[in-house]
## 1
Amino acid sequence: MFQTIRHIVRKEFIQTFRDKRMLMPIFVAPVIQLILFGFAVTTDIKHISLAILDYDRSFESRQLTSSFSQSKTFDLKYFLNSYAELEEAVQQGKAQAAVVIPENFEADLKKGKQTSLQVILDGTDANTATIIASYISQLIARYSENIFAEIRGQMALGMVIPQPRVWYNPNLESSVFMVPGVICLILLLTTLILTSMAITKEREMGTLEQLVVSPIKPYELILGKTIPFVLIGLADVTLIICAGKLIFDLPIRGSLLLLFGVALLFILTTLSLGLFLSTISRTQQQALMSAFFFMVPAMLLSGVFSPIENMPKVAQYITLLNPLRYFSIAVRGILLKGNGIDILWPQILALFIFGIAASVFSSLRFRKYLE
Amino acid sequence: MKNRIIPLARKEILHILRDPRSLYGSLIMPIVLLILFGYAITFDIKHIALAIIDQDSSSLSRDFISRVEGSEYFDLLYLSSSSTGFEKLLDEGKVKIIMVIPKNFSRDLSKGEDCALQLLIDGSNNNTAQVALGYTSLLVQAFSSNIILEKLNSKGTALQAGVPPIDIRPSVWYNPDLRSVNFIVPGIIAVVMMVLASISSSLTIAREWETGTMEQLISTPARPFEITIGKLLPYFFLGFIQILLVILVGTLLFKVPLRGNILFLFCGSAVFLVCGSGIGLLISTITRSQQLAYMLSILFTLLPSFILSGFIFPISSMPRIIQFFTYLIPARYFLIILRGIFLKGNGIVTLWPETLALLFFASVIVLACARRLRLSLE
């Protein structure tokens, strides 16, 4: 039995790597994706291009302007002279936000009267606009506090000062968040799609019939066809962890052994799904389409990119059925927080149940399909 | 020449129609994406799970806590007066922030001294952490100025009118309610079209190579150029049907405004589709295997047009080198055109640089295709 499986595994490896170019998507692609996700996927917003229209032209208004230009968040690019210029800058997308300082800005502040500041935001990208708005109000709040500081000193008015300490990712780098996410995505991509396409390919070429009439038993065929992709998947995980450590200084706080164990449980589910998809597809294109249909919602509703807590309630319930959700929590927990089984057991249990259920279901289905 | 292209295109259409599942799939996919991104995926952060350790238990600290509870940004899940075992809450991911109100909170403040509020933040999702930090500091500031205001009130100072001294009046243009669908819909059009155009064209041609029917096609009197056009034409139209579908669902169901010229929109889309299917064709001439073609399409079209186009992740926040690469992504230009047309009502007067860039890409890709195809056939 082991002999047969070994031969199929070998055949599959030879077939996959006969085309040397296949090495690229399997081993180079994960690294490219890692670099893309680590560097480019960041929702925090820097270098906001800002325009200022200063009607006041006073000492105080220049103070405010310079606190914008000193901030790393803003690139103060345009000093405007008229409202028409402001409209043009925003219309052409040159400025993402514009601040209008009113004429009596300094005078009002001196009198202790409240003055208002008009802020214009380009709402085309709603997400960015929200964040820019909150950055501007934080900056203004700090600025107001400085104005206030003198008076506070004289009158002995205390205030609350937040002292934040950030755990797990003290510099708040997005790569630390994203690299574990890439591990999840690559595993899903390689195992699910490659398996389903590899089996449909045999069918498309007509070689599946040959395998069926040979004395190979169905379970040997299943194992032989899936084991290569398990190995490729695990190799990819190792690759990403090493590259993540080298390029992004990814923290590895928990047990790598546990990580690989969890990855195996997850692969059990994705491979079974791949197997299942191959039983319902006649061509590779169909297999790919069906895999996409599963994969895209699974990726989006997993918490890998956007937090689950922010989703509507219905979507949150759907994520409970998504194995990727549990896997990504476990991977981030192990790598970033150093979590062990004592904390992650619910996720591991969920992955175990998914894995067993999916593999039993799809191997039964595959046997029937062969007959 | 026309007489050869049309039968080739008809054959391809038959292929598409014979596989209704893939056809429906490629039509339903954009809608599914639209619904997912429109409803489920929001990057604005609310309901941050929070724990408070109130070591002071004074009326002032309770006042602060009720302010936190009243905010829509925080969900106060745990409240305790002792700090034992609270670190576990962060480890287990049950809360994202722990606030520690110190023992002397109300005493210090009433004496007029500053008082520190300790915050422990789960930084594993840097974005959530950053936003949470911002909300917290705004909340604390509001609380502080409230205390100060009360004090000034009791002292009867004239300054009270100036607390807070600066009032911010934001006005949002083009998308006043900050609805994320408004920027998602144009983005989905770009991503979906790029992916469909390149993946389906690369897969169909790779399939011809794989099954050996490409040789048969070549040995017919049809020229490589005609084969290419004939194979791509149906996918070109399918792409247009998708655009129409997304525009219809986007404007009717999600009420996304379409302020600009629809004809310009279609012209821009046509040029973009040429880029997408051209890249697919290039990939297929290099690989000749469907598996590889698919992997390369993902790598060269899906991920870049998703990540590097400015669809969700702002280009200006990326490192310089990566920003440079974004200039090589056709989706980047198309996205600016789409958002300009949809939300700002821009026309060719404003958008000519992007249109020119797309035209440039399209011609380079088509030339490269013609060259590759001739080489691989000889």
## 2
Amino acid sequence: MKKVFGIACIAFISLFFRVPLSTGYQVGDIIKDFEAKNIDGTSVGTKSFPNAKGYVVVFTCNTCPYAQAYQNRINALAKKLDDKAWPLIAINSNDKGMSPGDSFDQMKQLAKSQGYAFPYIYDESQEIVRAFGASKTPHFYVLDANKKVKYIGALDDNADDANAVTKHYVEDAIKAIQNNMDPNPSTTRAIGCGIKKRAA
Amino acid sequence: MCMKSFICILFILFMSADLNGQSNRSIVLLDLDKLKSMVEASTNNKEIQIINFWASWCIPCMEELPYFEKIKQQFPDLKINLINLDFEKDVKTKVMKIIDHRYAGCDIYRLQGLSADDWMPVVNAEWSGSIPSTLIIKAGKKEFKEGKFKDFEELKNLLINL
């Protein structure tokens, strides 16, 4: 009887703690390998980097002004990182029917004009974005060598002005992983454009 | 004397209208405390509030922005706060044009110099950060919608059924 009461209590209490609705990877989850077509025509994914000490995965796109505000900063970060040890993989998951500016051809053009120093892959099937549960662009994930999610959120704390940034969340997360520590914070929020997902 | 001050007042009015250009809309800047009191304010009173987060560059935001104008016409007692999230450089050129002759019954705000990571959790703990997003507060109850309302009816039903 006591047991039943206990269970009822827990059930009752849990009503007050709504589990976040977001599905997809959370900090601490180990991701499944993914790959997709890169702008150079090859298939690129986590397995392309057998010696990686960690990964930066960013959901971005061609069209979102917030993603555009970050494209130089993403490129600068990729150039700063050792591309074998710390690959940065950018993923465009926007449906080209819903966002015509996000087609594969337009990705190639943007990467060329911006001199992207990182793979920019096209998640046409939207399998990758569904697995991650990314909701907006830009949306950053930092993984350790075991592909365990260590950080989810923004690149830094100022989208408006790169010179006014005070917290470099992604770079700090990388440094923490390099020092065998957990990033703090492990999640942050930022404004972004909703990823154009087709109905599942 | 009377006439003089009357002319004086007229002159001031004329000047101030001129300084503002064609627009007499103002945007109120919010800091974290003001935002907190806005989203908590009506929890204990009867005021019904709709708080929408939008930007001129956000296409779905611009599609649904007129819903808020329409719902204000249907429910004049509603308080509608439109919180603009444009880049600072676009306020004069883009935002002012949008609000200039529209959304008369709505109050327009901006968040100044705040990191999203600080203010977003104040609005809703589960908000991932995509916009548009809308918070409805009615008789102490809150409903948060991340993403665009499918149509005006969805907004209206959410408000009525809350």
